[in-house]
Amino acid sequence: MKIFKKVFLGIVLTLFILIAVSLVLVRPDSIKTFNETDPNLFITNLINNSRINIFGENEILIEETDLNSVLVPQITKQINIQELPSFVEFNGFFFDVQPNSIMLKSSLKIGFLPIGVNANVSPIINDDTIGVKLNGIYLGKLPLPLSLIEKISNSEIEDVYYIDNSKEFLNYIKIKELLINENKIFIDFVTNNNAIIDKFIDNEHKETFKNILSLLGKTKEGKKFANDIVKALLIKNFEGEFPQEMKNVIAEDFKSIDKATKSKLIYILLKNNFDNNFNFLFDRKN
Hints:
Layout (H helix, E strand, L loop, with lengths): L1 H24 L13 H10 L8 E7 H17 L7 E11 L2 E10 L2 E14 L2 E11 L2 E3 L1 H8 L6 E3 L3 H5 L2 E9 L2 E8 L1 H8 L5 H11 L3 H20 L4 H13 L2 H13 L15
Antiparallel strand pairs: 1-9, 2-3, 3-4, 4-5, 5-6, 5-7, 8-9
Helix pairs in contact: 2-8, 7-8, 7-10, 8-9
């Protein structure tokens, strides 16, 4: 009898330990919180802080805080309008940028039990579309086989998801490389100048603007001038007006280009009655 009692107590103790360990393993991580950033303001700041080069390669750095402050509030709003079961409480999520991948970490409460449902994804670029590859789903720290989730949900889980509206974005740039380090995402790209001109320059002046870029692309000073003009046009698209700060930068760029290029540029602008935004260039002090 004593041996059966010992076996029984051993089984109970083992089950208790397994349950306790499982409860610890499925617990959610502490949810990081970030101040909300308006997407348009984020893009404007990104453009302002970037050295746009329409004649070569560019690099953009996106911090983990940027990713969370822009995307998390937008996605959370969509989640909050969904009708979740009464026994499920959504307590937030965040993006944890890790080397070579991104972990989406969420906190839920099912009944009285707090759990974390996490997904590990990697960004991918497929021709003209941005997507994410699903590397794994986790209940806290416990990996869940996708086949098990598919069986429970009675639906097939795609391992690659594409962002539909990314096609328009990738029409203006071609991503050469995308690297993920801890807390940072690096994107190397070149610009599609024809697509940018089609988007931001009216039909009457498209060819004129192409000629201007061709003229300015012959010198270092001219390239900087052209890059800052494109940067100003991009900012105007989001802010609704040609920023005075960029006017000042462009005016300084204009002073630095050689007299021959400057004369040709003024001739092209006047001949083609170009956008009034550039009238400040004709100030005598320039």
